[in-house]
Amino acid sequence: MVAIVPSEAELTKLLNEKFTCSFRPGYVTVQGFVLPKRYLELEQRIQDFEVFDTDLWICGFPKTGTNWISEIAWLILHDLDYEGAKELNYRRTKTLEQVIYITRNPMDVSISYYHQSVNYEGFSGTLDDLCKLFLFDKINYGPFSKHVLSFWEKRNSRNFLFLKYEDMKRNLSKVIQGVAELLGKRLTDEETARLQEHASFESMKTNPAVNKQKIMEQFEKSGGKIKSPFIRSGKVGGYKSEMPEHFIPQFHYWMKKRFEGSGLDLVNV
């Protein structure tokens, strides 16, 4: 297919003019990834960060379902402590020597990323602008494909679980059992059913801890304007009703080229 490829200078200008705010004044490229400029202040601390073989790492590109799977993992590790799960705590995840990685159809990711960026990250561009940044690897924390494939290559490693957002939507009970098995926990059918209800999308939308309610309130007090909740739609294939039509074939072509030969299918999910 024929597509107009923007220049590196055009993409960099678009990123810096449309995707900056007081807490993200600029960007740097580190090992091929686009990161907030503040990374330079934290680089040495990150390099010196002590990693233990008892750590649990929940990883994923923004807007792929990390908050969702974190809620499930925390509850399984803490014997289904639903009261404790009501507290918003970035450090609340108990540690084990495991890795859980979650990904999602990048077209849905880009739409969700756009709404979050407009609401909470100072993005002043259009959906077209964000799709362009996404496709041509200038999106914050991108490239998406490099991020995903770096973990996909480790999917058969010991104590590693690779998940798709779409599988969670399709069969949440099966995903819950898979996470429990990875974490060395056993759940009864009744416990699984209750956790499935708690972790349903409808329940997550009304859960203040998962829906970042306190953070949103602080953001509004500081002058921010929120147009949609943190957990917004969550639909599989929701991009079809929002993405500009001319970008859909571009994304399909991009996905075929980026993931061809990897064995990972993020289109037919």
UniProtKB/TrEMBL annotation:
<dbReference type="Pfam" id="PF00685">
    <property type="entry name" value="Sulfotransfer_1"/>
</dbReference>
<keyword id="KW-0808">Transferase</keyword>
<protein>
    <submittedName>
        <fullName>Sulfotransferase family cytosolic 1B member 1</fullName>
    </submittedName>
</protein>
<dbReference type="InterPro" id="IPR027417">
    <property type="entry name" value="P-loop_NTPase"/>
</dbReference>
<dbReference type="InterPro" id="IPR000863">
    <property type="entry name" value="Sulfotransferase_dom"/>
</dbReference>
<comment type="similarity">
    <text>Belongs to the sulfotransferase 1 family.</text>
</comment>
<feature type="domain" description="Sulfotransferase">
    <location>
        <begin position="53"/>
        <end position="98"/>
    </location>
</feature>
<dbReference type="GO" id="GO:0008146">
    <property type="term" value="F:sulfotransferase activity"/>
</dbReference>
<feature type="domain" description="Sulfotransferase">
    <location>
        <begin position="99"/>
        <end position="263"/>
    </location>
</feature>
